[in-house]
From TrEMBL:
Pfam families: PNPOx_N. The lineage of its organism: Eukaryota, Fungi, Dikarya, Ascomycota, Pezizomycotina. This is Pyridoxamine 5'-phosphate oxidase N-terminal domain-containing protein. Residues 10-134 form the Pyridoxamine 5'-phosphate oxidase N-terminal domain. It comes from the Eukaryota. The keyword Membrane applies.
Amino acid sequence: MGQFYETIPESLMKWVLEQKMFCVATAPLAGSGHVNVSPKGGPYFGLLDDKTFWYLDLTGSGSETVAHLYEPANGRITVMFNAFDGPPRIVRLFGHGRVLESATTAFADFVKKHDIQLLAGTRSIVVVDVHQVGSSCGFSVPFYDFRDFRTTLNDYWSNMLRRFDEGRSKESVEKYWASKNAWSVDGLPGFSMALETAKKQHVAPVAKMVGPLAPHHYRNDRRFRLRHLAMVSILTAILTLAFTISVLPYL
C-alpha cells in the first residue's frame, strides 16, 4: 500500500521516466481561488537527481501553474504518475517549483547544461525541488494501451513560427502569450514576458471564466474604472456633508 520517502527512490526513477504522461497540480493561496490540474504528455520530463526534476512547459491557453509558482509564499506543486499497464502503481512527487522563462539567461544556461531538446512554442522550463515522494497502490486505475504521442500542439506552433518567419506579423507567439498567458483565471500575474509584451503592444487579456463567480478584474490591474469613480463620488459627498454639518454651528 502507501509508502512515503524524502527523496525519489532509485527503484522508482526508471519507472517514472518510462511513463508516457503525468499530471501537474497547483493552487493559489487564496481559499476562493481555483485548483488547477494539467495533464502532460510526451518525453519532456527529466530527473536531475533524487530530489529534483524538470519538465518542458509548452505553450497553451492557460498559465495557472506558472502563476501559482510565481505567487509570493506559494510555489507548491505536485506531479502524479500512474501505471496504465503492468503492475498498478501511483507515484506523487511533492515539491516547490521555479520557472525558467524562455527569454532568460537562466533558461538558456539550463538548456545548454542539460542538453535539452526544445520544441517550437516552448515557453519555459519548470524545475521542482522535491521534499516528499508518495507511492500508492493504484488498484482502481484501469488499463490503457498506449498508441502514440499526439503531435497536434507541436505542429501548430511549428506552423505558426513558420508563418511569422514568412512575414505574417500577426502570427506572433509573443502576442499569443500576452493575450492568454499574462494572467491566471483568478487574476494572478502569469508569465513575465507575457505581461511585458501586453504592456508594450497594448494587448488586452482574454476573458477566461464566465458566470457570477468569475473574477471581473485582474488583481494587479490598476486601471481606473467606473466603479472607482462612483466610490470616489460617494466618498466626496459623505465628506462634504460631514464638513457642512460640522461648520453649521459657527455660521
